[in-house]
Write a structure and sequence with these properties.
This protein is mostly helical and 104 residues long. The chain contains 6 helices and no strands. The two termini are 28 Å apart.
Length: 104
């Protein structure tokens, strides 16, 4: 199995440990991968913030949750999952999601 397939299939765990297992001792590569994940999460949050209608919002939220789950970002995944379960684009939860993204 290619190494990246095993890594991307992890659903839980620690993001930094996941990065280390993916890139080994290459700190530059780990930083680049981390930056790409954060940039993607910010992009998904922007899409979530401007989504029109409930269906658009839920689709954007599920994409962000999928990204979070793929990279073992359990707390972020949980926040987005709670937002999906509540079925509303509450500005407070969007703020919490944004804050969590910035801690990565």
């Amino acid at each position: 199995m290619p190494r990246y397939l095993g890594i991307m299939s992890l659903a839980t765990g620690d993001f930094h440990a996941l990065l280390a297992s993916a890139v080994g001792d290459d700190q530059h590569l780990a930083n680049d991968l981390r930056a790409a994940v954060v940039e993607s999460a910010r992009h998904h949050l922007t899409l979530l913030s401007v989504a029109s209608g409930d269906d658009g919002w839920v689709t954007a939220a599920r994409r962000l949750k999928g990204l979070a789950t793929s990279f073992a970002l359990d707390h972020l995944s949980g926040l987005v999952g709670a937002a999906i379960d509540n079925g509303a684009s509450d500005p407070r939860i969007l703020g919490q999601i944004a804050a969590q993204i910035e801690t990565l």
